[in-house]
Design goal:
CATH architecture of the largest domain: 3-Layer(aba) Sandwich
Helix content: 40-55%
Shape: globular
Bound molecules: phosphoric acid mono(formamide)ester, norvaline
Strand order of the largest sheet: 7-6-5-8-9
CATH class of the largest domain: Alpha Beta
Strand content: 5-15%
Order of helices and strands: HEHEHEHEHEHEHEHEHHEHH
CATH topology of the largest domain: Rossmann fold
Distance between the termini: 15 Å
Number of helices: 12
Number of domains: 2
Structural class: alpha/beta
């Protein structure tokens, strides 16, 4: 579809202002309630923001939650999802990401992409005339952060004044949590092994957001101090997709950063445990924690659906 106005992308958390992020979270809760009512009453889907529109979902890495939640999100908004792995596109045979973005823009109304470098996503977006959404890059996982903050808000109310501690690798998930949390007044602490800090540019951006929102950003190797009194403790895999050859070496380095019941005991009494999934029990988290009463990991996974419906409805409005 060729359009004259610039498309609205979501390549990272900072593509939306704090007001827009909050509006997406509000709409996500509304959509969650609508969906529950619809299935309870077997009523027709009331929302049809994407009726007659097609959304391409491109995956250059594996996915369960993102793939399924985006497919269902597009369907439930009345649109048609088109899921494509790069191996079945000419992209897998060397066609440029720029040409792929330009061509797909002539057929579809939005492009959702999971890829490696943020530069690939940026290049696709620069050549697309429809909105492009980051479904995970090596730098960010902003749709995950939307669902995570929706989950935390449902549990604890307003984010302002609350603290989330992320334990582990300073990766894409940590980056988007830093940016989104700091923007919305949620203090974010990252506790990481030496050598695995989050990207300094992302931390600097988060600090700028925090100065405006009143939140605190803390990056430390002291995991016990970081978890003390936190309202939420979050972790992710020690080796992300694309880092498989480092997985073995990371086991030893990250071992002191496992989220155990003893570590959780340092957090606030009503603290929740969060994980974007997939999880490795016995590595980044003990089974007693992720399968215990403080875990909200399946709520997070569910909220991907609602948050992404809200995002698509907002970008394609
Ligand atoms: N959390 C998440 O993005 O999961 P998938 O890799 O299964 O999409
Ligand atoms: N950090 C992980 C998140 C998976 C959803 C990865 O990039 O593999």
């Amino acid at each position: 579809m060729t359009t004259t106005a610039s498309p609205r992308h979501f390549l990272g958390v900072d593509d939306l202002s704090s007001e827009q992020l909050l509006a997406v979270l509000d709409l996500a809760e509304e959509l969650k309630a609508d969906r529950a009512a619809r299935f309870a009453s077997r009523a027709e889907m009331a929302r049809d923001e994407l009726r007659g529109r097609t959304v391409a979902l491109i995956f250059e890495k594996p996915s369960t939650r993102t793939r399924v939640s985006f497919q269902v999100a597009v369907s439930e908004l009345g649109g048609q999802p088109l899921t494509l792995s790069s191996a079945e596109l000419q992209l897998g045979r060397g066609e440029t990401i720029a040409d792929t973005g330009a061509v797909l823009s002539r057929y579809v109304h939005a492009i959702v992409v999971r890829t490696f470098g943020q530069d690939r996503l940026d290049e696709l977006a620069a050549n697309a005339s429809v909105p492009v959404v980051n479904a995970l890059t090596d730098l960010e996982h902003p749709c995950q952060a939307l669902a995570d903050l929706q989950t935390l808000r449902a549990e604890h109310g307003e984010l302002t004044g609350r603290t989330l501690t992320y334990v582990g690798d300073g990766n894409n998930v940590a980056h988007s949590l830093l940016l989104a949390g700091a923007k919305l007044g949620l203090s974010v602490r990252v506790a990481h092994p030496a050598g695995y800090a989050p990207d300094a540019t992302i931390v600097a951006r988060a600090e700028t957001h925090a100065a405006a929102s009143g939140a605190q950003v803390t990056v430390t190797t002291d995991v016990e101090a970081a978890v003390t009194d936190a309202d939420a403790v979050y972790t992710d895999v020690w080796a992300s997709m694309g880092q498989e050859d480092e997985a073995e070496a990371r086991l030893e380095v990250f071992a002191p950063y496992q989220v155990t019941p003893a570590l959780m005991a340092r957090a606030a009494d009503d603290a929740i445990f969060l994980h974007c999934l997939p999880a490795h029990r016995g590595e980044e988290v003990g089974a007693e924690v992720i399968d215990g009463p403080s875990a909200r990991v399946f709520d997070q996974a569910e909220n991907r659906l609602h948050a992404q419906k809200a995002l698509l409805a907002t970008l394609l409005r």
